[in-house]
């Protein structure tokens, strides 16, 4: 089980899964970059290199650990800090509301007694 940590971004990445935000669209892409936009507030972002490679793999099914491992195989000359850089980027994309986690929010979890809340 892969556990990655960096500052505030930590946890068991073998179980964390992200997908593109619901309001995020691809505006354009090339072999090693992509431009995305948020249709809610019209923010635009250009992702290059490793960021672009990570972005294209977030599909709501593959774990973050699997995605990071796959991208790191593309860049074998990367220093030891490459995994930490990927973790930080994922945290930043989530903070910017470009990625949605597929983890249920506490209010979305139905307890075994069938009642929501405390």
Secondary-structure map:
Layout: E1 3-6, E2 9-12, E3 18-20, E4 24-30, E5 33-38, E6 44-48, H1 49-57, H2 64-74, H3 82-95, E7 99-101
Antiparallel strand pairs: 1-2, 3-7, 4-5, 5-6
Helix pairs in contact: 1-2, 2-3
Task: Give descriptors for this structure.
118 residues, alpha+beta, 3-stranded antiparallel beta sheet, 7 strands, 29% helix, 27% strand, disordered N terminus
Give me the Rg, rounded.
Answer: 16 Å
Uncertain ranges: 1-11
Number of strands: 7
User: In DSSP terms, counting alpha (H) and pi (I) runs of 4 or more, how many helices?
Assistant: 3
In which range does the helix fraction lie?
25-40%
Strand order of the largest sheet: 4-5-6
Structural class: alpha+beta
SSE topology string:
EEEEEEHHHE
* Strand residue content: 25-35%
Oligomer: single chain
Judging from the principal axes of the Cα atoms, what is the shape?
Answer: globular
Terminal-residue CA separation: 32 Å
- Chain-averaged pLDDT: 80
Largest sheet: 3 strands, antiparallel
Molecular structure report:
The chain is of the alpha+beta class and 118 residues long. It is 29% helix and 27% strand. The chain has three helices and seven strands, in the order E-E-E-E-E-E-H-H-H-E. Strands 4-5-6 form a three-stranded antiparallel beta sheet. The chain has a two-stranded antiparallel sheet with strand order 1-2. The radius of gyration is 16 Å and the shape is globular. The model is unreliable at 1-11 (pLDDT under 50).
Brief description of this entry?
The protein is α+β, with helices and mostly antiparallel strands and 118 residues long. The protein is 29% helix and 27% strand.
